[in-house]
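To whoever is covering the structure queue this week,

Two jobs came back overnight. Logging them here so there's a record in the thread.

Job A:
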Amino acid sequence: MVNSALELHKKMLPNSISLSFKGNVSVELVDSLLMIISDRLESIESNLNIRKKVYGVMLECLQNLTSHIEKNEVETNEEIVINYDSGSVLFMIDTNVDCYEVITANYVANEKVEQLVKSLEEINSLDNDQLKQLYNKTLKNKTFSDKGGAGLGFIDIARRSNQKLNYSFTPIDKENTFFSLQISINKNIN
């Protein structure tokens, strides 16, 4: 184990960020992660615009995880025992030569998947000007969900990253689906 940790350390890029978290998320944890990553970004990324983009995407992703986590009871049958924590999330940020990668994952109720896919596909079909228009329209509508959001999070992430949202849904059981989102922020943009 120790040797593999040494090899992993050697393979990591100098002046990079690599952080992974799996577990239950809280506002206090989000604050701590934001502070840690913000400090690290300030020391390794000279471009203020890139720092702001990474921080903004990361903030929105963490807020989404905090606000929209499903805490469903998991059904099992006698033959197959499903072993997962539906209240647990995954958050990762990593750096490679060209970009920063932010990855989040959490369980969502199956009944929400269709609407999520529809929203994500709509966002991915729009260019930057259209995203700005959708953002402003959504903001003006002032329609808030039962979780307090107005649906701006994914729009904001797409606008900040200047990339299509890369996502997947993996069915788990008749109640739950595993939703993952990967966002890339190019280091070579202004």
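Job B:
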Amino acid sequence: MDHFLYRNGILHAEDVPVPEITAAVGTPFYCYSAATLTRHYKLFDEALTGMDHLVCFAMKSNSNLAVLRLLGNLGAGIDVVSIGEYLKARAAGIPGDRIVFSGVGKTRAEMKMALEDGIRQFNVESEPEMAALNEVALSVGKIAPITIRLNPDVDAKTHEKIATGKKENKFGIPIARAKEVYAEAALLRGLKIVGIDVHIGSQLTDLEPFEQAYAMVADLARQLRAEGHNIRRLDLGGGLGIPYERSNKAPPLPLEYGEVIRRAIGDLDVEVEIEPGRLISGNAGIMVSEVIYLKSGEERNFLILDSAMNDLIRPAMYGSHHDIVPIVEPAPGTEMTPVDIVGPVCESGDTFARQRPMPPLAPGDLVAFRSAGAYGAVMASEYNSRPLIPEVMVQGDQFAVIRARPTFDEMINRDSIPSWL
């Protein structure tokens, strides 16, 4: 469910007509619904009612400060994968003891900054990282709380570029070596073992891979406890998918996901952490674009928009689907015509949809890309020297720009020319 609905034939973001926002900020832009973000966070929080838990928003899906502040005010923790994300989370008001540091390539400088400013835990990905973290912790007189990320070799049945739990992936330590690595960690004076971490991938639409992975984690937790390790926290990752195509079968609900967790680890008396990102932010956002031209080709027609692959790269990178709808609702019975929906970037890959049935549209008309709140703005670039597009948040009948569009001068002035030129 989201809060982007037609009213009197015009798409609204909560109680604000999208054309009203367009008049204020221009196109293209991202727009997020505070009500949808709130609802989706609460679905996960309520799914774990009765269990000691923390829902840590995976901010790699959407790192805007306003989004982080809203979720932090609701009680969310944050899952970060870089010191830049850590610092943004802190700037948004998230306390260090609600921030989990994930990622396979943490540097010593990043470790030091997080230790000194406060961190809930590091999800350690490898033995070299574990040794480096121990040295850094001892050098600053701190004890680093850690979980060790395990690779359970479970097929998440998702896109190959976002699968993270198979043995050929770069993530985690093979589960077969887990007891050996935990024994090594217990000998390092700068580390404190607090639990186990696992994350098998993103955009999962089937609960069975979670069942497999969590059963393995639960069994390992019992074995590690028997060997004297204080396993009091299980970080179970995220990855639950969203319905990018409204016509497809809906993915499992957070409540069903919560039941999988209860069945797997409910008897262990542990604190549960989960790290949803896409399901919280994905359907909470749209990208609004304007039609520039209609172009007739020999074999197909093209709808050319003012947004491009640099603004929303998911279709070009993953072959991903986004529903694309006109801001003015088509009349019932309107004839649909297949068109290729493309942007102005000089790449054939700058294609959002091929042969997508669309109602008649004209230059100046507006369209919205649904389910664009996750991995949209955060993956954008200035390719072709196109400035990053604004982000807007709506709450009820009000809206605010939460990241402004840079001017061309601001974009150009970030570069410098050496004196010898």
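Note for Job B: Residues 152 and 213 are 6 Å apart (CA to CA).

Please reply-all if you pick these up so we don't duplicate work.
Q.
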